[in-house]
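Sequence, please.
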Protein backbone atom coordinates (compact mmCIF):
# COMPACT_ATOMS: atom_id res chain seq x y z
CA UNK A 1 0.00 0.00 0.00
CA UNK A 2 1.33 3.51 -0.77
CA UNK A 3 2.73 5.64 2.01
CA UNK A 4 0.00 7.58 3.76
CA UNK A 5 0.05 11.31 2.97
CA UNK A 6 -1.33 13.80 5.40
CA UNK A 7 -5.12 13.82 5.06
CA UNK A 8 -6.74 17.00 3.78
CA UNK A 9 -7.95 19.53 6.29
CA UNK A 10 -11.11 18.17 7.87
CA UNK A 11 -14.44 19.84 7.33
CA UNK A 12 -16.32 21.02 10.38
CA UNK A 13 -17.51 17.93 12.23
CA UNK A 14 -21.07 17.46 13.38
CA UNK A 15 -21.73 17.51 17.10
CA UNK A 16 -25.14 16.13 18.10
CA UNK A 17 -26.95 18.18 20.69
CA UNK A 18 -28.52 15.14 22.33
CA UNK A 19 -27.52 11.48 22.32
CA UNK A 20 -30.07 8.89 23.41
CA UNK A 21 -28.68 5.46 24.27
CA UNK A 22 -31.05 2.61 24.92
CA UNK A 23 -30.66 0.05 27.67
CA UNK A 24 -29.86 -2.71 25.15
CA UNK A 25 -27.28 -0.56 23.36
CA UNK A 26 -25.43 0.00 26.64
CA UNK A 27 -24.86 -3.75 26.73
CA UNK A 28 -22.49 -3.51 23.76
CA UNK A 29 -18.97 -2.07 24.13
CA UNK A 30 -19.36 -0.36 20.78
CA UNK A 31 -22.54 1.36 21.95
CA UNK A 32 -20.90 2.61 25.13
CA UNK A 33 -17.90 3.87 23.13
CA UNK A 34 -20.20 5.90 20.86
CA UNK A 35 -21.81 7.53 23.88
CA UNK A 36 -18.41 8.32 25.38
CA UNK A 37 -17.16 9.94 22.17
CA UNK A 38 -20.34 12.01 21.91
CA UNK A 39 -19.99 13.17 25.52
CA UNK A 40 -16.40 14.19 24.84
CA UNK A 41 -17.70 16.39 22.01
CA UNK A 42 -20.04 18.12 24.43
CA UNK A 43 -23.27 16.32 23.59
CA UNK A 44 -25.90 15.76 26.25
CA UNK A 45 -26.00 11.96 26.68
CA UNK A 46 -29.29 10.55 27.98
CA UNK A 47 -29.40 6.93 29.16
CA UNK A 48 -32.89 5.60 28.48
CA UNK A 49 -34.50 3.22 30.94
CA UNK A 50 -35.71 0.98 28.12
CA UNK A 51 -35.32 0.44 24.41
CA UNK A 52 -38.11 2.61 23.05
CA UNK A 53 -37.38 6.00 21.53
CA UNK A 54 -39.99 8.63 22.28
CA UNK A 55 -40.59 11.19 19.54
CA UNK A 56 -39.48 14.73 20.44
CA UNK A 57 -42.49 16.75 21.57
CA UNK A 58 -42.79 20.25 20.13
CA UNK A 59 -45.82 22.30 19.17
CA UNK A 60 -43.81 23.99 16.44
CA UNK A 61 -43.05 21.57 13.54
CA UNK A 62 -39.87 23.47 12.71
CA UNK A 63 -38.67 23.13 16.30
CA UNK A 64 -39.45 19.42 16.17
CA UNK A 65 -37.46 19.09 12.96
CA UNK A 66 -34.44 20.92 14.40
CA UNK A 67 -34.55 18.85 17.59
CA UNK A 68 -34.69 15.60 15.63
CA UNK A 69 -31.87 16.63 13.30
CA UNK A 70 -29.72 17.40 16.35
CA UNK A 71 -30.38 14.02 17.98
CA UNK A 72 -28.34 10.85 17.69
CA UNK A 73 -29.85 7.62 19.01
CA UNK A 74 -27.68 4.62 19.85
CA UNK A 75 -29.83 1.52 19.45
CA UNK A 76 -29.54 -2.20 18.68
CA UNK A 77 -30.38 -3.40 15.19
CA UNK A 78 -32.92 -6.23 15.53
CA UNK A 79 -32.81 -9.30 13.26
CA UNK A 80 -35.26 -7.66 10.84
CA UNK A 81 -32.82 -4.76 10.34
CA UNK A 82 -29.91 -7.16 9.87
CA UNK A 83 -31.63 -9.02 7.03
CA UNK A 84 -29.80 -8.01 3.86
CA UNK A 85 -31.74 -6.61 0.91
CA UNK A 86 -30.75 -6.37 -2.79
CA UNK A 87 -29.89 -2.82 -3.84
CA UNK A 88 -29.72 -2.52 -7.64
CA UNK A 89 -28.14 -0.87 -9.54
CA UNK A 90 -25.50 -0.07 -6.90
CA UNK A 91 -24.57 -3.39 -5.32
CA UNK A 92 -25.59 -6.95 -4.64
CA UNK A 93 -26.65 -6.34 -1.05
CA UNK A 94 -27.45 -3.54 1.34
CA UNK A 95 -26.55 -3.53 5.01
CA UNK A 96 -26.93 -0.67 7.46
CA UNK A 97 -24.55 0.73 10.07
CA UNK A 98 -26.97 3.59 10.76
CA UNK A 99 -30.26 5.03 9.60
CA UNK A 100 -30.97 8.71 9.01
CA UNK A 101 -28.80 11.77 8.40
CA UNK A 102 -28.13 15.00 10.26
CA UNK A 103 -27.56 17.07 7.09
CA UNK A 104 -30.15 19.38 5.55
CA UNK A 105 -30.27 18.46 1.87
CA UNK A 106 -33.35 20.03 0.35
CA UNK A 107 -33.80 17.12 -2.08
CA UNK A 108 -33.09 14.38 0.48
CA UNK A 109 -34.47 11.06 -0.75
CA UNK A 110 -34.75 9.81 2.84
CA UNK A 111 -37.68 12.21 3.24
CA UNK A 112 -39.78 9.76 1.27
CA UNK A 113 -38.12 6.59 2.55
CA UNK A 114 -37.97 6.90 6.33
CA UNK A 115 -40.97 7.75 8.45
CA UNK A 116 -41.10 9.70 11.69
CA UNK A 117 -38.85 12.47 12.99
CA UNK A 118 -35.47 12.65 11.22
CA UNK A 119 -33.38 11.33 14.12
CA UNK A 120 -30.11 9.63 13.19
CA UNK A 121 -30.01 6.10 14.60
CA UNK A 122 -26.69 4.26 14.89
CA UNK A 123 -26.30 0.62 15.74
CA UNK A 124 -24.40 -0.62 18.75
CA UNK A 125 -24.21 -4.25 17.58
CA UNK A 126 -21.91 -3.66 14.61
CA UNK A 127 -20.13 -6.98 15.15
CA UNK A 128 -23.43 -8.85 14.74
CA UNK A 129 -24.26 -6.87 11.60
CA UNK A 130 -20.90 -7.62 9.97
CA UNK A 131 -20.99 -11.27 11.02
CA UNK A 132 -24.06 -11.77 8.86
CA UNK A 133 -22.39 -10.72 5.61
CA UNK A 134 -20.32 -13.84 4.71
CA UNK A 135 -23.48 -15.93 4.26
CA UNK A 136 -24.16 -13.86 1.12
CA UNK A 137 -20.77 -14.39 -0.49
CA UNK A 138 -21.13 -15.30 -4.16
CA UNK A 139 -24.80 -14.37 -4.31
CA UNK A 140 -26.64 -11.38 -5.69
CA UNK A 141 -27.77 -10.13 -9.09
CA UNK A 142 -25.89 -6.85 -9.60
CA UNK A 143 -22.15 -7.56 -9.58
CA UNK A 144 -22.03 -11.26 -8.75
CA UNK A 145 -24.16 -12.10 -11.79
CA UNK A 146 -22.90 -9.39 -14.16
CA UNK A 147 -20.13 -10.18 -16.68
CA UNK A 148 -19.29 -6.46 -16.81
CA UNK A 149 -18.92 -6.09 -13.05
CA UNK A 150 -18.12 -9.59 -11.80
CA UNK A 151 -14.52 -8.54 -11.12
CA UNK A 152 -15.87 -6.41 -8.23
CA UNK A 153 -16.91 -9.58 -6.43
CA UNK A 154 -19.90 -9.68 -4.12
CA UNK A 155 -20.67 -6.06 -3.31
CA UNK A 156 -22.17 -4.72 -0.11
CA UNK A 157 -23.62 -1.19 0.01
CA UNK A 158 -23.23 0.44 3.42
CA UNK A 159 -24.82 3.85 2.86
CA UNK A 160 -28.35 3.35 1.59
CA UNK A 161 -30.13 4.97 4.55
CA UNK A 162 -27.30 6.96 6.14
CA UNK A 163 -24.03 8.76 5.49
CA UNK A 164 -21.60 6.70 7.58
CA UNK A 165 -18.58 8.94 6.99
CA UNK A 166 -20.42 12.05 8.19
CA UNK A 167 -20.86 10.50 11.65
CA UNK A 168 -17.71 8.37 11.76
CA UNK A 169 -15.95 10.66 14.24
CA UNK A 170 -18.73 9.78 16.70
CA UNK A 171 -19.50 6.16 15.83
CA UNK A 172 -16.29 4.47 14.68
CA UNK A 173 -18.58 2.00 12.88
CA UNK A 174 -17.27 2.62 9.39
CA UNK A 175 -13.71 1.89 10.49
CA UNK A 176 -14.91 -1.42 11.91
CA UNK A 177 -16.49 -2.27 8.55
CA UNK A 178 -13.34 -1.29 6.64
CA UNK A 179 -11.20 -3.50 8.88
CA UNK A 180 -13.69 -6.35 8.47
CA UNK A 181 -13.48 -6.21 4.67
CA UNK A 182 -9.73 -5.76 4.85
CA UNK A 183 -9.47 -9.09 6.73
CA UNK A 184 -12.00 -10.85 4.50
CA UNK A 185 -9.83 -12.76 2.04
CA UNK A 186 -12.47 -13.21 -0.66
CA UNK A 187 -13.77 -11.48 -3.82
CA UNK A 188 -15.85 -8.88 -1.99
CA UNK A 189 -16.20 -5.12 -1.86
CA UNK A 190 -17.59 -2.66 0.68
CA UNK A 191 -19.16 0.36 -1.01
CA UNK A 192 -20.40 3.56 0.56
CA UNK A 193 -21.05 7.12 -0.50
CA UNK A 194 -20.76 10.37 1.42
CA UNK A 195 -21.21 14.14 1.23
CA UNK A 196 -18.54 14.69 3.88
CA UNK A 197 -14.83 15.31 3.50
CA UNK A 198 -13.46 14.00 6.81
CA UNK A 199 -11.14 11.35 5.39
CA UNK A 200 -8.86 11.21 8.44
CA UNK A 201 -10.58 8.26 10.22
CA UNK A 202 -10.03 6.05 7.15
CA UNK A 203 -6.41 6.95 6.38
CA UNK A 204 -4.09 4.17 7.46
CA UNK A 205 -6.74 1.47 7.92
CA UNK A 206 -5.93 -1.99 6.49
CA UNK A 207 -8.61 -1.96 3.79
CA UNK A 208 -7.05 -4.65 1.59
CA UNK A 209 -8.25 -2.70 -1.49
CA UNK A 210 -11.67 -4.20 -0.89
CA UNK A 211 -13.36 -0.85 -0.16
CA UNK A 212 -14.74 1.68 -2.63
CA UNK A 213 -15.36 5.18 -1.25
CA UNK A 214 -17.68 7.26 -3.40
CA UNK A 215 -18.33 10.94 -2.95
CA UNK A 216 -21.82 12.24 -3.63
CA UNK A 217 -21.21 15.35 -5.72
CA UNK A 218 -23.09 17.76 -7.94
CA UNK A 219 -22.57 20.84 -10.05
CA UNK A 220 -21.15 23.62 -7.83
CA UNK A 221 -24.28 25.77 -8.17
CA UNK A 222 -26.39 23.03 -6.55
CA UNK A 223 -24.27 22.48 -3.43
CA UNK A 224 -26.22 25.29 -1.72
CA UNK A 225 -29.14 22.85 -1.44
CA UNK A 226 -27.00 20.55 0.73
CA UNK A 227 -26.96 22.31 4.08
CA UNK A 228 -24.70 20.94 6.81
CA UNK A 229 -22.48 18.99 4.41
CA UNK A 230 -18.87 19.52 3.34
CA UNK A 231 -18.01 21.93 0.52
CA UNK A 232 -17.59 20.32 -2.86
CA UNK A 233 -13.83 20.89 -2.95
CA UNK A 234 -13.40 19.28 0.47
CA UNK A 235 -15.20 16.16 -0.77
CA UNK A 236 -13.02 15.96 -3.87
CA UNK A 237 -9.83 16.52 -1.86
CA UNK A 238 -10.86 13.72 0.52
CA UNK A 239 -11.47 11.41 -2.43
CA UNK A 240 -8.01 12.16 -3.76
CA UNK A 241 -6.40 11.53 -0.37
CA UNK A 242 -8.15 8.16 -0.06
CA UNK A 243 -7.19 7.14 -3.60
CA UNK A 244 -3.56 7.88 -2.79
CA UNK A 245 -3.62 5.32 0.04
CA UNK A 246 -5.09 2.62 -2.17
CA UNK A 247 -8.83 2.88 -1.74
CA UNK A 248 -10.95 2.32 -4.81
CA UNK A 249 -13.01 5.45 -5.33
CA UNK A 250 -16.07 6.72 -7.16
CA UNK A 251 -18.32 9.65 -7.94
CA UNK A 252 -22.03 9.46 -7.26
CA UNK A 253 -23.34 12.44 -9.24
CA UNK A 254 -26.76 13.06 -7.74
CA UNK A 255 -29.31 14.34 -8.06
CA UNK A 256 -28.58 15.58 -11.58
CA UNK A 257 -30.75 18.59 -12.40
CA UNK A 258 -31.50 20.63 -15.50
CA UNK A 259 -30.87 24.02 -13.91
CA UNK A 260 -29.95 27.12 -15.98
CA UNK A 261 -26.50 26.67 -17.56
CA UNK A 262 -26.32 23.07 -16.36
CA UNK A 263 -23.83 22.01 -19.10
CA UNK A 264 -21.33 24.58 -17.80
CA UNK A 265 -21.93 23.55 -14.20
CA UNK A 266 -21.34 19.87 -14.80
CA UNK A 267 -18.30 20.59 -16.96
CA UNK A 268 -16.88 22.48 -13.98
CA UNK A 269 -17.57 19.53 -11.67
CA UNK A 270 -15.75 16.99 -13.81
CA UNK A 271 -12.87 19.37 -14.55
CA UNK A 272 -12.35 19.91 -10.81
CA UNK A 273 -12.43 16.17 -10.23
CA UNK A 274 -9.86 15.53 -12.94
CA UNK A 275 -7.51 18.11 -11.40
CA UNK A 276 -7.69 16.45 -7.98
CA UNK A 277 -7.16 12.93 -9.30
CA UNK A 278 -4.36 13.72 -11.77
CA UNK A 279 -1.27 11.49 -11.54
CA UNK A 280 -2.62 9.15 -8.83
CA UNK A 281 -1.07 5.72 -9.46
CA UNK A 282 -3.25 2.62 -9.78
CA UNK A 283 -6.43 4.71 -9.76
CA UNK A 284 -9.69 2.75 -9.79
CA UNK A 285 -12.52 5.23 -10.43
CA UNK A 286 -16.20 4.62 -11.10
CA UNK A 287 -19.01 7.05 -11.90
CA UNK A 288 -22.73 6.70 -11.16
CA UNK A 289 -25.16 9.20 -12.70
CA UNK A 290 -28.52 9.65 -10.95
CA UNK A 291 -31.13 12.16 -12.08
CA UNK A 292 -33.46 14.06 -9.78
CA UNK A 293 -36.85 12.53 -9.08
CA UNK A 294 -39.40 12.89 -6.32
CA UNK A 295 -42.65 11.38 -5.10
CA UNK A 296 -45.77 13.15 -3.85
CA UNK A 297 -44.94 11.95 -0.32
CA UNK A 298 -41.34 13.18 -0.41
CA UNK A 299 -42.44 16.53 -1.87
CA UNK A 300 -44.83 17.04 1.04
CA UNK A 301 -42.16 16.23 3.62
CA UNK A 302 -39.52 18.38 1.94
CA UNK A 303 -41.86 21.36 1.66
CA UNK A 304 -42.61 21.01 5.37
CA UNK A 305 -38.92 20.77 6.25
CA UNK A 306 -37.73 23.53 3.91
CA UNK A 307 -40.68 25.89 3.29
CA UNK A 308 -38.45 28.62 1.82
CA UNK A 309 -36.67 26.38 -0.67
CA UNK A 310 -36.65 27.29 -4.36
CA UNK A 311 -35.84 23.70 -5.37
CA UNK A 312 -37.75 22.79 -8.53
CA UNK A 313 -40.51 20.35 -7.58
CA UNK A 314 -42.94 21.35 -10.31
CA UNK A 315 -44.97 18.25 -11.18
CA UNK A 316 -46.28 19.88 -14.37
CA UNK A 317 -42.75 20.06 -15.78
CA UNK A 318 -42.06 16.38 -15.11
CA UNK A 319 -43.20 13.02 -16.43
CA UNK A 320 -45.22 10.83 -14.10
CA UNK A 321 -44.06 7.25 -13.78
CA UNK A 322 -44.93 4.26 -11.64
CA UNK A 323 -42.28 2.55 -9.53
CA UNK A 324 -41.98 -1.23 -9.39
CA UNK A 325 -44.01 -1.02 -6.19
CA UNK A 326 -46.86 0.79 -7.92
CA UNK A 327 -46.25 4.20 -6.38
CA UNK A 328 -45.89 7.46 -8.32
CA UNK A 329 -42.66 9.32 -9.00
CA UNK A 330 -41.93 12.40 -11.10
CA UNK A 331 -38.91 12.38 -13.42
CA UNK A 332 -37.63 14.62 -16.19
CA UNK A 333 -39.35 14.29 -19.59
CA UNK A 334 -37.70 11.95 -22.10
CA UNK A 335 -36.09 14.71 -24.18
CA UNK A 336 -34.56 16.39 -21.12
CA UNK A 337 -33.27 13.02 -19.94
CA UNK A 338 -31.73 12.39 -23.34
CA UNK A 339 -29.96 15.75 -23.31
CA UNK A 340 -28.67 15.27 -19.78
CA UNK A 341 -27.44 11.76 -20.46
CA UNK A 342 -25.69 12.66 -23.71
CA UNK A 343 -23.98 15.67 -22.18
CA UNK A 344 -22.89 14.12 -18.88
CA UNK A 345 -21.62 10.88 -20.33
CA UNK A 346 -19.64 12.95 -22.84
CA UNK A 347 -18.17 15.07 -20.05
CA UNK A 348 -17.11 11.96 -18.13
CA UNK A 349 -15.39 10.57 -21.23
CA UNK A 350 -13.60 13.89 -21.85
CA UNK A 351 -12.46 14.75 -18.33
CA UNK A 352 -12.21 11.30 -16.73
CA UNK A 353 -11.36 8.85 -19.50
CA UNK A 354 -9.97 6.39 -16.97
CA UNK A 355 -13.35 6.07 -15.18
CA UNK A 356 -15.89 3.28 -15.57
CA UNK A 357 -19.47 4.51 -15.91
CA UNK A 358 -21.54 2.03 -13.92
CA UNK A 359 -25.03 3.20 -14.72
CA UNK A 360 -27.38 6.06 -15.58
CA UNK A 361 -30.77 6.32 -13.94
Amino acid sequence: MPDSPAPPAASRLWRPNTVLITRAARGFPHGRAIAERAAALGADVVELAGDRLANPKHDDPRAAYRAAKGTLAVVVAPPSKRRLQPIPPSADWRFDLAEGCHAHCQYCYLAGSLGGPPITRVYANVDEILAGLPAHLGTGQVTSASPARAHEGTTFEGSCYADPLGIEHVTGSLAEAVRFFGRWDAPVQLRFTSKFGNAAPLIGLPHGRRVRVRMSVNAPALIRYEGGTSPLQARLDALGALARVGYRIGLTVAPIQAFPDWPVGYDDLFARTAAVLADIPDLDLTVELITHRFTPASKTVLRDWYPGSDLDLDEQARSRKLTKFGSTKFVYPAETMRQLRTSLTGLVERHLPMARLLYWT
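The chain is about 30% helix and 20% strand.
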